[in-house]
Specification:
The chain is mainly alpha-helical. The protein contains 19 helices and six strands. The longest helix is centred in the first third of the chain and has 37 residues.
Length: 431
Amino acid sequence: MIPRYTLPEMAELWSPRTRFELWLEVEALVLEAWAELGVVPREAAREVRGARVDEGRIAELELEVHHDLIAFLRSIQEQVGEEAARYLHFGLTSNDVVDTAQGVLLGRAADLLIREAERLKEAIARRARENRDTPMVGRTHGVHAEPLTFGWKLAVWYREMERNLERLRRAREVVRVGKISGAVGTYAHLHPRVEEYVLSRLGLEAEVPATQVVQRDRHAEFLCLLAVVGGSLEKFAQEIRLLQRTEVREAEEPFARGQRGSSAMPHKRNPEKCERVCGLSRLLRGYAVAVLESQALWHERDISHSSVERVALADATTLLHYALCLMTEIVEGMRVYPERMRQNLELTGGLIYSQRLLLTLVERGMTREEAYQLVQRMAMEVWEEGGSLLEKAKGEEEVRRRLSLQELEEIFSPDFYLRWREEVFRRVGLE
């Protein structure tokens, strides 16, 4: 199922037509810059600016020349006059065009990711506020630990998404870079002012100094940052999957009318959307590894990175965009079961209050070791035999000598653990 609000923009961004149109824009800007310097006739720049992308012709020519940029250039040369064709690609190497256009594409892709990350952050904020006072048990190692609220859990996600937005903004700046500096980056057949002219109009920074390419540590960092964001989405999705288990059932992803969970078992409501998000995050990490291995090129450049990036950059940004949209859909439609949370809160017979009992006994004169041994012994008896820790404590002479029945009752209440939630929400910005 594709969320209703996702994909078309990112798909269009990585289409061959968009890439060719950006190549044409770079070539036209270069000629305009040369014209400003008096090297190329202004009419040549105007003619190239008026050319159009012909995807079919480019494909035909590529079958002949086995080089996509040369095929593109020939398709443009066929459309313009002899003078403009003579000056097209003047002083450039392929990666002046390819890497500069790619810097624009990656910047735009990052903008789309930032927009969807903002939407997810706001969806999490809404659900966190709704559930600020919804008590549930916290778990460590998968075992009941101490009470918190479901909103508290979501507040953790909210702050993580704030950090992810910072990562995405940083990722955008890392790759919004181009170069118009020639075969090995020395401007041998160009002028630095040509680069300044082109990149300023495209909103890019210059790679200075460059080799034949923009340096690939940038792309490695970009993909690693995307993989970190994907890891956060996996964390959120995995938590919902764990809470959706039948024996837990404290929350679950949305299940639409008419949806089916299993071809064999009509009762099933599987967390398939969350599982999808978890799977996509694995792909993102795989793409990050592939691009990390493309950092080291031979001398000023080889082409081993090119085939990797043609797949990894488009796929990774598209996958993360989709995962962000899907996670927003999940969070917005997530079902929460407060009553089941309360039932599970009491599942251990009050064992989750053991630390407060321990610390209160220490405050009343016992050594920590004495108190720990006493509370652990009672807790292990509850684990093995059932019953409640409160009742065990009421029957223990060492406890009753130090604590009244009313004090014991107060210890075994979740309210104490949740008393700072308003303060924490204020500090997080979720008042």
